[in-house]
Model the fold of this input.
Amino acid sequence: MRAAVLLRFAMVLSAALALPTFAAGSDMKALRVCADPNNLPLSDRKGEGYENRIAQLIGKDLGLPVEYTWAPQRMGFIRNTLRAPDGNGGYKCDVIIGVPADYELTATTRPYLHSSWVMVFPDRPELASVKNAEDILALPAELLRRLRFGAFTQTQAFDWLFKHNFFEQTVTYPALSPDPDEYPGQIIQDDLTDGKIDVALVWGPIGGYFAKRSAKPLRMVPFTSTPEYRFDYLLAFGVRHPDKQWRDTLDGVIARHQAEIDRILEDYGVPRLELPSPPAGARP
Done:
C-alpha cells in the first residue's frame, strides 16, 4: 500500500549491503523508529499516525524516548533506514512498526494487526445492497456499467477488477508514487469525494481512516480472501534478522499492550480481523 501499505507490499527490492555488526539491545538510549514522514493514517512527521502512537506506547513501556529516521516508503526504504549505517558502528533506526508478518526483508514479531483490503463508496440508495465486495457483481447491469472504480496497480484489488472486466471503467493509480507529497489516502480524500470515481479499492487502514473523516457520507465493505486472491494480511514489527533478542523484547511489549494497540487502531477507523492465537511454545 505508496501505501503501507501499497508500500508495505510492494516496497523494497534492494541489493544487500555490507552491514555493521551492532545489534539493538539493552544499551539502547532511544527507540529509533524507521518511518514515512507523509503516509497517514500510518505515520507522519507531526506524529499524527497510528504507528506514531504505537511507537510512543513502546517507548513508554521500555522507558525510552522515541526518535525517527524518515524516508518515503518506496524502493530502497529498508536500505535507507533499517539497514543504513549511522557512521558510528550502528544503524540509523531499529524498528519498523508495520510490515507483513511473513516479510522476507526483516525479522518479524508476533502480529499486532489483521486487516484486509476494502471497497469504499458513497452511501447512496442504489448501493445499499452491497455488504461485501462480491455484492458489487450482483448489481443491475446498467448500474454496474456506470460505476467508475479507482485502484492501485500491482495489487490484488486491481487484478480482481481486471478479472471481472472492469478495466475500462477503472482509474489507475501507481502503487509507488515518485512524488513524496502524494499519499494513498488521496484516492478517497480527493477523487472519491469529488466524484472522479465511484468506488475506491484500498488497503483497509487507509479506507477506514479516510472514510471516517470524510465530510461526505461513505460506506466501507471488505474483500474476502479466496484461493485465487489474498486480501487479508497480518502486520507485525520489523527488525534486522540478527536482532533476535530485540525482536523478543518487542514481542513482550505487544503481548502486554495488545488491548491498548487495539484501541489506537479503533480510534483511526482501522478495520480489524481476528488475530491468530500465539502457537504453543511461542516467545513470551
Q: What stands out?
A: The chain has eight helices and twelve strands. The two ends are 30 Å apart (CA to CA). The domain at 6-113+233-267 is CATH 3.40.190.10 (D-Maltodextrin-Binding Protein; domain 2).
